[in-house]
Amino acid sequence: MPIYEFHCEDCGKAFESLVMIASALDSVTCKHCKSSNIKKMISATSSQPAAGSTIPAGALSGCSSRSGFS
Ligand SMILES: [Zn+2]
User: Fold this and answer.
1) Which of 4, 25, 52, 66 has its CA 20 to 30 A from that of 19?
2) CA 33 to chain centre
3) With a threshold of 0.90, does the pTM exceed it?
4) Average pLDDT per run of 10 along the chain, which is 70 residues long?
């Protein structure tokens, strides 16, 4: 289920909310103070594999050809 983590700019507290459709993200309010001044958090578990996979791909193609020439 699409559970998003939010951070409230007004009271500074973090909370989770179930958002079924993307357009509903704008209507999410803080569970603590009912404020709409919130930020959607990027989860650490989803961003780690994407950042790590880009490093080995570029290192292999650029390193093998140049080392064999010289
Ligand atoms: Zn709040």
Assistant:
1) 52
2) 24
3) no
4) 92 94 90 96 58 54 60
Whole-number Å distance, alpha carbon 21 to ligand 1 midpoint, is 22
- Tokens read off for 40: 């959607």
Where in the sequence is the domain holding 28, given as residue range(s)? 1-42
Using the mean position of ligand 1's atoms as its centre, give its distance from the Cα of residue 48 in Å. Answer: 28
Q: Cα of 45 to ligand 1 centre, how many Å?
A: 24
> How many domains does the chain divide into?
1
46 Cα to the center of ligand 1, angstroms: 25
Q: Which two tokens stand for residue 68?
A: 């064999």
- CATH number of the domain to which 11 belongs: 2.20.28
Q: What is the DSSP string of 21-37?
A: SGGGGGG---TTT--S-
